[in-house]
Design goal:
With 332 residues, the protein is an all-alpha fold. It has one domain. It is built from 13 helices and no strands. It has helices spanning 8-36, 42-64, 66-73, 76-97, 102-123, 134-155, 166-195, 200-205, 209-221, 232-259, 262-269, 272-280, 290-329. The longest helix has 40 residues, at 290-329.
Length: 332
């Protein structure tokens, strides 16, 4: 029997499947662009990908979701913050891919989100506060340790990229971690607007203008020519790759976030670094690093355990809130 996406369980299942699809596409994306950025400016990719996202989805929003656009107009501050955090997150992420092994970028980028959730909640009006149980605190300590291991692997030259200048390695780690915090804020803000009825496609159409503007400013002040080394054939390949590996996965993720609970999304994303590590084995520029694999597996185990503990905590809280009503209803 087909799942009804309008039912809560159906929405969760649909969100899980979309998040899983995003994780697979994101793994291919990170390995491909990690290699591409060795000879192509990340700003080229940013301008193409974010421009396509806006141009491709804005007509849909204008034609099919004027109500959602009206809601966004009534919440300009929230839309601005989504744009700012999205721009910071994605530009940081793309530049990190040029200096850090892709599998470790994912560990740092996605792993820091759950650790920052408590104070991120406090930054977003209307967002429920998060209280961690003792078990969750211990698991968050393990998650923090996995991120520390990932950072140490990069800084110690033990990753698949081998030794790097310490300044370049440290910058890559900082960009990946900082971008992870920014994307966590952006995702939570998007979820609050989805809950008010704004369609994912509408929000997706208006999520990237700031990223386009910031990338353009960086391109103007950068000493390197923007299209240096890009032939017409390569430009066509970049456009196609942006469509398939950035625009499509980002939209899939936008819909998945709107449907599934944050806990489900976190659980799926936990397997991402291991997927990336497996794909890296086919990338000739990277060697197989046991230290990287240890960091990815440690992160995956801690992230899944932490998400499962959060799910149990939420379930227990829902059960407690329903107990008084159940006791008043009497026996059936």
């Amino acid at each position: 029997m087909l799942t009804n996406p309008s039912a809560p369980q159906g929405r969760e299942v649909a969100g899980f499947l979309l998040s899983l699809a995003f994780a697979g596409l994101a793994a291919v994306r990170d390995v491909y662009f990690g290699g591409l950025f060795q000879h192509v400016n990340p700003l080229d990719v940013a301008l193409v990908a974010f421009g396509l996202s806006t141009v491709g989805f804005l007509p849909f929003a204008l034609a099919r979701d004027l109500g959602g656009l009206a809601m966004l107009v009534r919440r300009p501050a929230r839309l601005v913050w989504i744009n700012v955090t999205t721009a910071l997150a994605w530009l940081s992420f793309l530049f990190a891919l040029g200096t850090v092994e892709p599998a470790l970028v994912q560990v740092l980028f996605y792993g820091i989100g759950p650790l920052s959730v408590r104070w991120v909640d406090g930054l977003i009006p209307g967002s429920p506060s998060t209280t961690l149980t003792p078990v969750e605190r211990r698991l968050h300590l393990g998650l923090s340790s996995s991120l520390a291991v990932a950072g140490a692997v990069v800084l110690g030259g033990l990753s698949g990229l081998g030794p790097q200048p310490i300044a370049s390695a440290a910058l890559g780690v900082a960009l990946a971690a900082g971008g992870g915090i920014a994307i966590s804020i952006s995702t939570m803000l998007c979820r609050t607007l989805n809950d008010t009825g704004v369609r994912p496609a509408t929000l997706f159409a208006l999520r990237f203008p700031c990223a386009i503007g910031l990338a353009a400013v960086f391109a103007l002040v950068s000493p390197a020519p923007l299209l240096s080394g890009i032939t017409p054939g390569l430009l066509g390949a970049v456009v196609l790759a942006c469509l398939i590996l950035i625009v499509l996965p980002n939209y899939v993720n936008q819909v998945g976030v709107a449907l599934a609970s944050p806990v489900t999304v976190r659980t799926v994303l936990a397997v991402g670094p291991v997927l990336v590590f497996g794909l890296q084995l086919f990338d000739g520029r990277l060697s197989s690093s046991r230290a990287t694999l240890v960091a990815c597996v440690l992160y995956g185990v801690c992230a899944i355990a932490s998400a499962n503990a959060r799910r149990q905590t939420i379930g227990a809280m829902v059960g407690l809130s329903e107990t008084p009503a159940a006791s008043r209803s009497g026996p059936c």
